[in-house]
Amino acid sequence: MNEFNRRKFLEGSAGMAAAASLGVGGAMFATSANAQSALTFKPEKGAKLRVLRWSRFVQGDIDAYMANVKAFTEKTGVEVRVDNEGWEDVRPKAAVAANTGAGPDIILSTNDDANLYPDKLLDVTDLAEYLGKKYGGWYPAVQQYLRPDGKKWIGLGLGAAGSMIVYRKSMVEAAGFKEFPKDTAGFLALHKALKDKGTPGGYALGNATGDSLWTNWLMWSHGGQLVDKSNKVVINSPETLKALEYGKQLYPNFIPGTLSWLDPNNNKAFLDGQIAVTNNGISIYYAAKNSQDPKIKEMAADIFHAPFPIGPVGVPTESHLFFNQMVMKYTKYPNAAKEFLRFMMEREQFDKWLIGGGGYVAQPLAAYESCPIWTSDPKHMAYRDCVKNMRPTGYAGKLGYASAGAGADFIVANMVAEAISGSKTPQEAMERAQKRAERYYKV
């Protein structure tokens, strides 16, 4: 954990402990462990819930999730309907629901979408503080995303799909590298060697909700930022320029077509053997390991994971796809909705879900670092600390409507795509990104 995250984690944990000791939420926050484990919300009579969530990339995720949903209904009698949509479809549907005051009771969305309409969301501070105290504290980025004012929680963290390096070990070794490079100079050298061997790399440069997050790493690793701590837009900077110039050297070594890649494209290219390295969640490895095709199943032994290398800034700069859980304020059944989320986040259910997903989602609460999924396969461990180590997409500013809007508009991803592909000069791409971002971060 870098020092920024470590400090915020300690501050957040201390803050939650202090709030709990002051009795936030009433007597249910008594300090004894028994009292903590006893928190429940009594569902309203006749309650029915509708949940909108992103579609699975790993079948075990949705299987385990639905098993927990069934267990909740059997325990409470509350019927729960779950609808699954693609990441790109959840965001607009959630916005429509928030603005019209009708739709799903609970929405599982991405990054800081909750900050687009915080006044439309149910205050879940009591539940968030209960879970935080019981399960070791929420990681810093979770608090930044969902407790933007440092006080009220506008949603619960679900976790994150890690954007880690996924590579074919045999191909990396054939290119002359005994291990995956740990710095940006080695990263570039590897990609040049891979291209020369006919086994290039490839990274999404389209408006991919998850897989375009590598562009944050590219900018941050060289010291660039979308905004500074005061929320001043500073993307047009010498540091960002260095990142884009580095990207211009990297891009010619990519497989053709990455400018149009969305989230499924790199998975397909990797499993087809077209590329040797990309960034992704653990879903590529999961798909290979569980494939019915013997050739793809055999590939699993050759698939390894690594963090993105450290750039000139000298510290890790991880960007991962964060998942939130929002209860809409218009719900007729707020108690049932809170009880559903509490039930799903308790250890008996949450461990099963993490295990079912095969490590696709990393936990938002520190206690779940001990979930057996992370040690059941050595290749899972690379993903365990994604949420602990991640920077929020609006780094280094305060999250809110502006950061959510800028992220949803793919400003960083578009800037990188334009600059490194040559459709614009790096300076032109930065200037356009600066103007686009300033529309959200109005002074």
TrEMBL record:
InterPro entries according to UniProt: Bact_solute-bd_prot1, SBP, TAT_signal
Record's keyword terms, sorted: Signal, Transport
UniProt-annotated location(s): Periplasm
Main location per the UniProt record: periplasm
UniProt entry tagged with the keyword Ribonucleoprotein: no
Origin: domain of life: Bacteria
Family to which the UniProt record says this protein belongs: Belongs to the bacterial solute-binding protein 1 family.
Protein's recorded name: Extracellular solute-binding protein
Lineage: Bacteria, Pseudomonadati, Pseudomonadota, Betaproteobacteria, Burkholderiales
